Write a sequence for this structure.
C-alpha cells in the first residue's frame, strides 16, 4: 500500500479521537443527558396544556377575589371595599403583580410548548453520554488500521478494505440515527431556550410562586373562612359563590408539590441552567452529522486510493532478424 494515504488515514483517525477533547464533550455531553432526563416529564403537549390550565385558574381566582369576594365582604359589612387591600395585603400584591406574572409565564409555556417536537427529536438520538465515544471509537480503529498497515506492509489488501468499511460506517451513522433531521431540531431547541434558561429569569419565575402561594394561602385560610362565618355560608355555598378560588385551593398542592407539577418544572429549569450552558457551548447541532460524513468520505477515499499500482512487466526489445543476402558464385578468371 502507498504510505502517503495511510499517513492521511492515521491523521484522520487521530483527529476524530481529538474532537471530543477539543470541544469538551466528555464533560458537556453527560450534562446534556442529565438535562434531557430531568426535562422529560414536562416536555409533552399534555403537560403544557395542563400548566396553561393552571394559569387560567390563577387568572380566574384573581379576578374573582377582586370582584365577587371583595363585593360580598363589603355587602356583608365585614370588610369595607376601601379596606380590602389593607385587610388582605398579600392578595393585593398578587393582583398588582398578576398581569406581568401572567404575561411572563404564558410566554414561557408557549416557548416550551413550541419546542416539544424538537425535544422529542433530540431525545430520540443516542444517549448524550455516548456522543464522545462515537468519535473516539472509530477514530481509534481508523488510526489502528492505518498504523498497522504502515508497519506491516504485507497486510495491504485487508487494511485497505478495512479503511473503506470504516469510512462507509461513518457516512452511514447519521442516516441510521436520523441525525440530518433530528440534530437541526435540537439546535433550534437550544436557540429557543437561550432566553428561557437564564438564571435571573428562572429565579424571577420561582419568585412568582411565592407571591401566588401567599395570596392562595390568605384566600384559603383567612378571606373565605371570614366570608363563610360572617355570611353564614356552607361549604357548598362557597363552592357555588367562589368556584375559581375554591378550584385554585384544591389544585395548589398539585401545582407546587407534585413531582411533575408546574413548580417542579421551574425547579428543573433552575437545576439545569449550568447543564444547558454546557450543551450550548458545544458546536451547533446541525453540524454534527457532517462530523461523521466528511471524515467518512475522506477515510473511504484514502482506502480506495491507497493501493500500490502493480509494476509493469519489463519488455525485452526484439532482435531484428538478420537478412541473408544470396551468395553469388565467383567466376573463375582462369
Amino acid at each position: 500500500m502507498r504510505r502517503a494515504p495511510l499517513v492521511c488515514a492515521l491523521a484522520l483517525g487521530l483527529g476524530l479521537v481529538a474532537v471530543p477533547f477539543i470541544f469538551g464533550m466528555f464533560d458537556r455531553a453527560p450534562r446534556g443527558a442529565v438535562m434531557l432526563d430531568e426535562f422529560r416529564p414536562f416536555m409533552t403537549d399534555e403537560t403544557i396544556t395542563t400548566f396553561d390550565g393552571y394559569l387560567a385558574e390563577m387568572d380566574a381566582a384573581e379576578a374573582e377575589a377582586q370582584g365577587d369576594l371583595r363585593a360580598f365582604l363589603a355587602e356583608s359589612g365585614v370588610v369595607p371595599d376601601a379596606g380590602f387591600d389593607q385587610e388582605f395585603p398579600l392578595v393585593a400584591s398578587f393582583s398588582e403583580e398578576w398581569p406581568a406574572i401572567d404575561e411572563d409565564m404564558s410566554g414561557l409555556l408557549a416557548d416550551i410548548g413550541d419546542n416539544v417536537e424538537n425535544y422529542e427529536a433530540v431525545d430520540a438520538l443516542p444517549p448524550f453520554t455516548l456522543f464522545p465515544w462515537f468519535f473516539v471509537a472509530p477514530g481509534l480503529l481508523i488510526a489502528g488500521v492505518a498504523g498497522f498497515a504502515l508497519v506491516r506492509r504485507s497486510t495491504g489488501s485487508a487494511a485497505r478494505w478495512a479503511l473503506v468499511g470504516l469510512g462507509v460506517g461513518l457516512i452511514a451513522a447519521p442516516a441510521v440515527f436520523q441525525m440530518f433531521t433530528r440534530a437541526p431540531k435540537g439546535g433550534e431547541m437550544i436557540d429557543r431556550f437561550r432566553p428561557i434558561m437564564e438564571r435571573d429569569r428562572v429565579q424571577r419565575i420561582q419568585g412568582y410562586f411565592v407571591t401566588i402561594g401567599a395570596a392562595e394561602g390568605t384566600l384559603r385560610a383567612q378571606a373565605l373562612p371570614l366570608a363563610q362565618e360572617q355570611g353564614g355560608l356552607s361549604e357548598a355555598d362557597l363552592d357555588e359563590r367562589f368556584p375559581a378560588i375554591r378550584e385554585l385551593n384544591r389544585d395548589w398542592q398539585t401545582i407546587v408539590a407534585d413531582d411533575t407539577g408546574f413548580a417542579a418544572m421551574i425547579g428543573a429549569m433552575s437545576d439545569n441552567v449550568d447543564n444547558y450552558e454546557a450543551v450550548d457551548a458545544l458546536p451547533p447541532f446541525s453540524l454534527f452529522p457532517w462530523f461523521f460524513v466528511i471524515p467518512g468520505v475522506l477515510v473511504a477515499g484514502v482506502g480506495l486510493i491507497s493501493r500500490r499500482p502493480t509494476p509493469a512487466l519489463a519488455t525485452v526489445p526484439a532482435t531484428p532478424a538478420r537478412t541473408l543476402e544470396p551468395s553469388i558464385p565467383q567466376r573463375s578468371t582462369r
Q: What stands out?
A: The chain has one domain: 3-305. Residues 125 and 177 are 6 Å apart (CA to CA).
